[in-house]
């Protein structure tokens, strides 16, 4: 009988995949072809675009975003 990995073990393995492979995995395990998912994303994109045009969106400087991403990646590397 094959042993089952825990969710934490699976997450650790998934995080080692390339971004392209992670995206593929998400598509494979989700019902990404469901029309309501596409419609929901379209609505979310429209809502966010409208917030930007209305001036109500909280915009973040790219350098700040980049720094946060780098900090999270470093934290994940240290946790492994």
TrEMBL record:
Superkingdom, natural source: Bacteria
InterPro entries reported for this sequence: CHP02574_addiction_mod
Protein name: Addiction module protein
Organism: Corallococcus interemptor
